[in-house]
Amino acid sequence: MPSDDRPARPGRPRAVPNGDSALSPRDQILDAAAALFVEHGISATSTRAIAERVGIRQASLYYHFAGKDDMLVELLTTSVRPSLEVVRGLESRVPSSASAAGALAALVVIDVETLARTPHNIGTLYLLPEVQGERYDGFRAERTELQDTYGRLGSLAADSDVAAAISPVRLGGILIQLAETVIQLRRDGAVEDADRDAIVATCLRACGLDTAAVADARREAASLLAAVAV
Amino acid sequence: MPSDDRPARPGRPRAVPNGDSALSPRDQILDAAAALFVEHGISATSTRAIAERVGIRQASLYYHFAGKDDMLVELLTTSVRPSLEVVRGLESRVPSSASAAGALAALVVIDVETLARTPHNIGTLYLLPEVQGERYDGFRAERTELQDTYGRLGSLAADSDVAAAISPVRLGGILIQLAETVIQLRRDGAVEDADRDAIVATCLRACGLDTAAVADARREAASLLAAVAV
DNA sequence: ATTATCTATAGATCTATAGATAATGC
DNA sequence: ATTATCTATAGATCTATAGATAATGC
Fold first, then answer.
1. Which pTM was predicted?
2. What is the largest CA-CA distance in chain B?
3. Quick one: which of A24, A90, A139, B29 could link to A76 by a disulfide (CB 3.0–4.6 Å)?
């Protein structure tokens, strides 16, 4: 059996031995905090509960984090960062090498995919009242940047009737909300391909694209993403 | 001045006199709890904080409610109930006296309006993790009924391409989420007519309706609502 | 010596109950 | 007598710090 005892790190051993997590203690804590924050909320999660889930004593958390807030900040950033990075690359290609509709479709695909894969569905954390405090302005700014991109691409992609009726800011709010539908879906159960497809298509239709235009945009998105792919 | 001293009720007077609220003590408590739950979350709101906001002592809450849970249940129900009632009346008119698209438009208008007017934006409470517990099954069932109605009306109203691509359940999830965009908008600031219009139009477009069909549905919704009006 | 944990605990809550009290209403 | 409040408080947390300890690494 390949029971490799990973390079034992210095420090007093845990009262309850580590189990087999390959994660650093820091990441073990973040993972436990994420699961509990999502399930019970932030204030309802005690530092003791987090520690218990990790398998260490409550006080030991403070060696790694200043407190729950500190953990939260790190969790929040991981939940937008990936979309944001792809997005920054994407927008620069419009309209020279990509249509706005194609780029929007790609954005939605990426964002939905990121949210669908996020550990413990931490996208839900954004909805919690604690996160509305100034303490998290930095994170909210990143999310706003994402929303603005939705607004810009959406307005560019929009059919003239939609563009006339809905301002970019409003459209951005609606589109990001649509993409985030996936968060709610995950709450209720598994997210299937058909769910993702439905969300992407709805975002495009929200901009006034018809069935043919939707199909075109998706095709374009697929190749765009293949080009940017990791 | 019409400073009518409302019929003084029996009971020991408050240490800090009532101010001028026309609400019953029970409703004063609900109102304070709503504001604090929305702003800080449920667990982060102490019974002491609620009492303080009302202007009574912490222990006095327990004369009216068994605890925070008890208040929450009541708040949640007020936030769906109104939409639900109108909705039950609405659906029965399809397709005899109303088209599905017209009825869907009416549903969205009502729901958005209800959420836009709800005191302290208590629609946000639904998003909190505490509400996912079984304790609130009853409430969640009502919300599911609303979602199902969105799914049924949406699928009936849908253009054949959309109907083929998106199942009623999924469509219901997407549409209710769209309507609830108004909750997020309220978080950021005032909700304007243009916001409501944008949401209603987007729901219809999500079903594959084009500009002309959207306009028709809205017109129909207006007269439907006039007929059901309070 | 450094690192990562541990044990112990102070101080600050927070919830919910017991029992007293100050009004009204009969 | 009934009602709606009050005061006081027990018991259960919960957070964050101080200081000890058991490893590794030099």
1. 0.92
2. 67
3. A139
